[in-house]
Design a protein that fits this description.
four-stranded antiparallel β-sheet, 12 helices
């Protein structure tokens, strides 16, 4: 009878439902929920932005007559506006590795040291090595999903409006913002931030050093792109039209040359009053291009990915060495 008289008490006595996440999985989500929600928001909003911009751009281009009309025949104002919109979003994607390194990688462990959470966790029944691996796994999964989704959708957008994207695919969005490179570069900057955070044990210092280090890595990566493959060379007569093989390539250098293969700078004889006489005297009869072909893009990207992942493994090794052997 007493149970009938107090139904609310009986209801409150029901056991709580089981948590979907337990142990370290629950701890990672609970401890880093702000960054988790931020990455989810960036992914969802970025994906929606890409879908909207792609649809809007295609509507504008179709109204201008493309693809029935070639891209070169489209009004220059429309062409430039579309290219600028595409480049603007590409710039945001290229900033992602830097932001992930600073705001995800750098505070990941340094905040635990600064707040004393690391000592608390490692005094429980959880082994230190297992906790560190969960930290790395959580951060790398978050980075991979965020950059992977956005880079796949960006490649889908780029494929739809190819003629209106930058022609320099090596030093622009086509190289840095597609699936393998963006993910690998983001993993590299994140691992750099994690290693710096483990060494400094101070959040602000780790974020500042990670920003500077990541910026240096991105600049170095840009400068080293031309070394990722061997440029090709093509020779054709000065009096001929540019061969179709040179369409959509990235030019490395250009010369003029003789029939025997001797090369001169591209501007040789150009400013001479008797250009043809000058060329005849030097024996210049050919244009010579050094370039990267578009079919080299995939190989160059995977070479870059290999380098980025090697550096990522190095930073992870530094992080594990410092945190597993040093005092918490």
């Amino acid at each position: 009878m007493s149970t009938l008289a107090h139904p609310r008490a009986a209801e409150s006595a029901k056991p709580a439902g089981p948590r979907r996440l337990r142990g370290l999985a629950w701890l990672m989500v609970r401890q880093h929920r702000a960054m988790l929600l931020t990455c989810v928001a960036v992914t969802v909003l970025g994906a929606a932005w890409i879908v909207y911009e792609r649809s809007s751009m295609l509507d504008t281009l179709h109204a201008a007559g493309w693809p029935a009309k070639p891209a070169d025949a489209i009004d220059n104002n429309v062409h430039n506006a579309m290219s600028n919109r595409f480049n603007e979003f590409a710039g945001y994607l290229e900033d992602l590795p830097l932001l992930l390194g600073v705001f995800l990688g750098a505070p990941l462990v340094s905040s635990d040291h600064e707040q004393g959470t690391a000592r608390l966790v490692t005094t429980q029944s959880v082994p230190r090595g297992r906790w560190l691996l969960w930290k790395l796994g959580f951060a790398f999964l978050l980075v991979t999903v965020t950059t992977g989704v956005l880079s796949v959708l960006f490649a889908w957008w780029r494929g739809s409006v190819g003629p209106f994207t930058p022609t320099d695919w090596l030093h622009g969005a086509a190289f840095d913002s597609t699936v393998p490179v963006l993910i690998a570069m983001s993993l590299l900057t994140t691992s750099l931030g994690i290693a710096v955070g483990a060494l400094t044990r101070r959040v602000v210092a780790a974020m500042v050093l990670t920003f500077l280090g990541s910026a240096a890595v991105l600049v170095a990566a840009e400068l080293l792109k031309d070394t990722l493959a061997t440029p090709r060379r093509l020779t054709y007569p000065l009096t001929s039209e540019q061969p179709a093989a040179l369409d959509h390539v990235v030019q490395v250098d250009q010369w003029v040359g003789t029939a025997s293969g001797k090369l001169y700078g591209w501007g040789t004889c150009v400013n001479d009053q008797a250009t043809e006489v000058c060329r005849a005297r030097l024996g210049i009869v050919n244009n010579v291009w050094e370039y990267f072909g578009h079919d080299q893009l995939a190989g160059m990207q995977w070479t870059a990915v290999g380098l980025y992942l090697t550096l990522t493994a190095l930073f992870v090794a530094v992080f594990l060495w410092r945190t597993r052997r040093g005092p918490i």
